[in-house]
Design a protein that fits this description.
With 334 residues, this protein is mainly alpha-helical. It is built from 13 helices and five strands. α1 (16-31) links the parallel β1 (3-8) and β2. The structure holds tryptophanyl-5'AMP.
């Protein structure tokens, strides 16, 4: 049977990109009745220094976003990574499987390290190997993510294959990335060639799940566009990254395809399309924001849910990691 695992870093507030590329689809998978395991990856977050109080706050806020978006802790496992030591344990084993050359080719590392790679943490370099451990500690088969995580999932496959080969076992599954829907790569509202990101210095570039209705509407009204009306076919969006981004966002929020949106708005000016998009965004996001705010009134309850999720996660991962120790040749007390 398929088993889904995915994670989100609590390294900042969640954006519309995280919602459309990940969270919304996590809920769909849960509602399809698939076994789903979702994780706030706090150990990944500290590959770049995090203020401890903020990390705690953002982990709870992320969990609140999962719940507000429709994750049901009775049907999905929801927890934070550091509570289940299997992740760190398997991460170490995978550090000994992954090759320096593989890691050096990770574009996200190169982007984050920039020119000064001498001065980033060793954890940032090893990041994708911990990510492989997240997934394979559960022998998950499918991983829903946005487009930007594709290369990391290819590495996860390489690690699983090399582990199986090195030890002559058929132990780890080769995972399938699940990158689907109209918004697998939501772009910045200020620059259609850049990904919408929680770390962009401009708050105008993104919609945060904590933004109120006015702020959302204002950001969409001010989003960068070109002067042309919307075309009558998807082809007409080819060299118009900002227009294409807004159409994709509309489609994902409405649960339509981009083709349908273009059919409905062919020839429309942005003066018409942007207010429609703002209304749609507010209608879809405001209930989530309000519910997040309500949940955040009771942080102890969020911690309790994360703790229960962690216990269920531990029960799945522990025997798998124990088998890995055995395969590798490590003595375990009987
Ligand atoms: P993170 O925290 O950067 O993002 C969480 C999820 O949101 C997606 N996403 C986007 N999708 C569409 N458009 C965007 N602009 C956008 N920005 C982010 C990401 O693709 C991701 O699915 N390495 C992961 C976290 C992770 C993980 C894992 C994921 C750790 N272990 C195991 C899956 C399985 C990350 O940094 O995601």
């Amino acid at each position: 049977a398929p088993r889904i695992f995915s994670g989100i870093q609590p390294s900042g507030g969640l954006t519309l990109g995280n919602y459309l590329g990940a969270l919304k689809r996590f809920v769909e998978k849960q509602d399809e009745g698939i076994e789903t395991i979702y994780c706030m990856v706090d150990m990944h977050a500290i590959t770049v220094w995090q203020d401890p109080a903020k990390l705690r706050q953002q982990t709870r806020e992320g969990a609140a976003a999962f719940l507000a978006a429709g994750i049901d802790p009775a049907r999905s496992i929801l927890f934070n990574q550091s509570q289940v030591s299997a992740h760190a344990e398997l991460g170490w084993i995978f550090n000994c499987i992954a090759r320096m050359g593989w890691m050096s080719r990770m574009t996200q590392f190169k982007d984050k390290a920039g020119k000064n790679s001498e001065n980033v943490s060793l954890g940032l370099f090893a990041y994708p190997s911990l990510m492989a451990a997240d997934i394979l500690a559960y022998k998950a088969t499918h991983v829903p993510v946005g487009e930007d995580q594709k290369q990391h999932l290819e590495l996860t496959r390489d690690i699983a294959i090399k582990f199986n080969n090195d030890y002559g076992v058929n132990f780890f599954p080769v995972v399938e990335p699940v990158i689907e829907g109209a918004a697998t790569r939501v772009m910045s509202l200020r620059d259609g060639t850049k990904k919408m990101s929680k770390s962009d210095p401009s708050d105008q570039s993104r919609i945060n799940l904590t933004d109120d209705a006015d702020t959302i509407a204002k950001k969409i009204r001010k989003a960068k566009t070109d002067p042309e009306p919307l075309p009558d076919s998807l082809d007409g969006l080819k060299d118009r990254p900002e227009a294409r981004n807004l159409v994709n966002i509309y489609a994902a929020l409405a649960g339509h395809t981009a083709e349908q949106v273009i059919r409905d708005y062919a020839g429309a000016q942005f003066g018409t399309f942007k207010p429609a998009l703002a209304d749609l965004a507010v209608a879809k996001l405001e209930p989530i924001t309000l519910e997040m705010n309500r949940l955040m009134q009771d942080p102890a309850e969020i911690d309790r849910i994360l703790g229960q999720g962690a216990a269920r996660a531990e029960a799945i991962a522990r025997p798998i990691v124990d088998q890995v120790y055995d395969i590798v040749g490590m003595i375990r007390a009987p």
